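User: Sorry, what's this?
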Amino acid sequence: MQKYHKFLVLLALSATALAVTGCGAAKNTAEKTADTSAASVQADQEPSDMIFLNNTMYYDAGRTVFIQPDHTDGTIQSIAAAGQKPARNEEASFDCLGAPYCILADGAAAVLTNEASGAYELFLSDDTVEFQGVFKKKKELSDDTLKWLNFYYSLSESDRNALSMIPSEFAGQIPSGSASVNETAVSGTSYLEALTQEELDATEALAQYYFTEEVTSFEGVDQIYPADSSDPQYHNSGIEDDYGPGNIIIYRVLTNLDRRDGNPFRYISIARKSKSDDWKIINSGF
């Protein structure tokens, strides 16, 4: 009987040990899986193109420079091994050996990536941002401006060109050759400036309501901004063209449905006959 009792005790202890080992193995497997997933996400987020200049890492901004450089400061002397970050000055992580580069500002550089067209790719350090050729440190800007810049550069080039807004922290600093300055001069009359902030808030709320509550299939608004005064939609004969500045506003809108389906920004036109009338949606589409 005692031998049988000892056997049961040993059997119970063995089962417990196996259970603990199994839990530990499962835990280790889960941790390894989580670590692998995290590493995969980090790898996906890691910028593919980098350059190392003057002991500073610069990351590809995903666009060419706003103003063509008028000088060069050197050439790329070496290429880092595949999967490695550049670690030596004048070294890059992509195939551009011998390409000229120039320092545009503290935290900003450019590399000639297309010799035929003379295109320079913009590179920024992780503490620097750029807006239409003006460079600033992130710590100099408000959180709202940084969020707006992220939104601005998520737009296509054509949508960026149609957007006339300039953040207050960049006001008066944009080069005279910029698209925004030229658009303002050409348009003559600003539909946006003809409205008060209260009127802009009211019309944007109406646009939001339309794409969220009135037509629920759009699944709400992902991004929205006022169209520039030079937008040809303002001069759509028979509809928008019947309303003058102060009584019409057109918004460019990316709905959640359109973003998922890969569609471009829509427009929605909101107008009134006079200052005493209510705002109404008069047109919408691509």
Summary: Residues 129 and 136 are 6 Å apart (CA to CA). The longest helix spans residues 2-45. Confidence is low (pLDDT under 50) at residues 1-44, 177-188.
